[in-house]
Amino acid sequence: MKIGRLLILEVRDTKSGEICKYRCKIVEKNDNYLFIDHPIDVKTKRTTFFPKKTSFIATYVGEDQVVYKFPSEVNAIVKLTIPTLAITLPEKNKIKKIQRRQYVRIETAVDAAVHSRNEDHEPFTTVSTDISGGGISVIIPNDKTMESNEKLDLWIVLPMNDGKLNYVYAETEVIRIKQLEGTVQTGSIKFTVIAKKDQQSIIQFCFEKQREARQKEMM
């Protein structure tokens, strides 16, 4: 938990029982406490003032891209260069790893070309709604079709942060078709055969997008 690390605090409302989420940054730390800036309500975007003894569960993403959580509480309001809250620094055995899906899934639009392996329909181009190292969801154009369990050849274009375009290929299978608003449909597709370098390229792309999102949250 380095200085500058984003924390998400989950606080249970004593009246409604609802879990409210807040975000904050670690401003300073010592052997006993983490000093955080005043939390911002994730929904309202408003700064919230926690009284002493407020208990919560804090989560953060480590350098290994794994999510961790720990219990803590507000011990004091401390004036550093900015007003901060001193919260209890947890013992190592109190920090728990949260089990996540194998691959980070990112909601983003990337270009894709879809080819039926059995030539059941004409090839078409589309964009994704989300992507991960294990699969992708794409919008099915109104004049095109896609069936569950269908085998596809898929080409994907990934715009990386360094300005390069990475082109990846995978043999895939359609898992399910989902109806969105109006006539829009998406196809959830899993990668069945994909080169390791292509899968690593997708994972790197997802991490870059996730990092961008965290940086925006910290602004």
Short description:
The protein has one helix and 14 strands. The chain has one helix spanning 196-218; strands spanning 6-12, 19-29, 33-37, 40-41, 55-61, 67-79, 83-88, 96-97, 111-116, 124-132, 135-140, 151-159, 165-179, 185-194.
Task: Note down, in words, how this protein is organized.
- The protein is mainly beta.
- It has two domains: 6-97, Electron Transport, Fmn-binding Protein, Chain A (Pnp Oxidase, Chain A, Roll), CATH 2.30.110.10; 111-217, predicted glycosyltransferase like domains (Thrombin, subunit H), CATH 2.40.10.220.
- The chain is 11% helix and 49% strand.
- The protein contains one helix and 14 strands; from the N terminus they run ββββββββββββββα.
- The chain has one helix spanning 196-218, and strands at 6-12, 19-29, 33-37, 40-41, 55-61, 67-79, 83-88, 96-97, 111-116, 124-132, 135-140, 151-159, 165-179, 185-194.
- The strands form two sheets. A six-stranded antiparallel barrel has the order 1-2-3-7-6-5.
- The chain starts with 5 loop residues before the first strand and ends with a helix.
